[in-house]
Predict the structure.
Amino acid sequence: MKSRHLAFLAFLLPVGCATLPEPRAPAGPDARDCHRWHLSGRIGVIRGEEGWHGGFDWHQTGARYRISLRGPLGQGGLLVIGDAGRARLVPARGAPLEGRDIDRLVARALGWPVPVTGLGYWVRGRLAPGRDGRILKDARGLPERILQDGWVIDFSAWTEDATGHPWPTRIRAVRDGLKLRVVLKQPVCEENRPASGNDA
């Protein structure tokens, strides 16, 4: 268990040393408005002395998503596809899983609760719709912390994509002793539409 914990810490150490360009205040394009986007990155999950980390690629168009997760718990990888009404999880080994709740499918496959539904909004600095929550903003008007579903989500760094959309690049989420660290790379907004819901 401790070797897995040390590997997780090794994953986190370079994150604190990364230098990223500062985005301008979101007076124009806003990643929260993005209808079609994709990004890649790394995710680490830890609870107590146990943890895992892996890389991922995320493609989203409206409610439709396709997420490739590489390397969690030595499983080789997972492919997650679906929309607001259905989800399908295809592991590198074993039978596919299907259901309506992607968070439950991922927890069943990995043995760890990962808030995939929430992350689809939090990686853009948004609240997941239909749930109570709150956004705290920094002096630039960018989200600094989100409180939702018992999660405390902190944004410690931001950047801009080629179209001028600001994106968080380092995210830390904590709930009931479970800690998530997400490092985002190469976020791109491919199609912009006005955001709706409780994003204030």
Summary: The CA atoms of residues 89 and 95 lie 9 Å apart. The helical segments are 2-17, 102-110, 116-122. The radius of gyration is 16 Å. Residues 2-192 form a domain with the outer membrane lipoprotein receptor (LolB), chain A fold (CATH 2.50.20.10).
